[in-house]
Write a structure and sequence with these properties.
With 162 residues, the chain is of the alpha/beta class. It has six helices and five strands. Strands 2-3-4-1-5 form a five-stranded parallel beta sheet, sandwiched between helices. Helix 2 packs parallel to helix 3, helix 3 runs parallel beside helix 4 and helix 4 packs parallel to helix 5. It is globular and about 45 Å long.
Length: 162
């Protein structure tokens, strides 16, 4: 599995966000997750992910205690859809638990994960969670542009196997 790519964007450059959002095209293998503000719950992140995949974020029915149906659904959809790359914007706002959920999703599905941190340094929670994963960090915009999630011309066709 490739390392988690962490893009440091200390100036909160709009071009990073616009490029990542423009690359969002699940049928071509790329999803961009822009977590909703005002929530720190793991379930809320799963709902945001399901919405980004174009799937219903709220699941009907009752579930046994201890189950995480939104995460199970997100895992199933990522496995089923051709999505091979997930870019998460505003990663500096993720709690350690939410980051761990994304790392678990990566481990279960093999998805290429890119975290865009709009701060000068990794926050403690993100740094703590990443200690369990192989990751690389870049702060160079040009280097980040060479990263496959920036390839919006091909919409994932030329680098799906990378």
């Amino acid at each position: 599995m490739p390392p988690v790519a962490v893009v440091i964007d200390p100036g909160d450059d709009a071009s990073h966000t616009h490029t990542a959002l423009a690359a969002h095209h699940p049928p071509s293998g790329r999803a961009t997750l822009h977590p909703g503000p005002g929530t720190t719950s793991e379930t809320g992140l799963a709902h945001d992910l399901l919405a980004a995949l174009g799937k219903p974020p709220l699941l009907p029915g009752r579930f046994p205690a201890g189950r995480q149906p939104p995460w199970e659904a997100a895992t199933a959809w990522i496995t089923t859809l051709p999505v091979t790359r997930l870019t998460v914007l505003r990663a500096h706002r993720l709690t350690a638990r939410r980051t761990m959920r994304l790392l678990q999703l990566r481990a279960l599905t093999g998805i290429h994960l890119t975290l865009v941190c709009h701060r000068l340094h990794l926050p403690a929670a993100l740094h703590q969670a990443l200690q369990t994963a192989d990751y690389s960090v870049t702060a160079d915009f040009q280097a980040a542009r060479r990263h496959p999630w920036y390839c919006i011309r091909c919409r994932g066709r030329c680098c799906r196997t990378q």
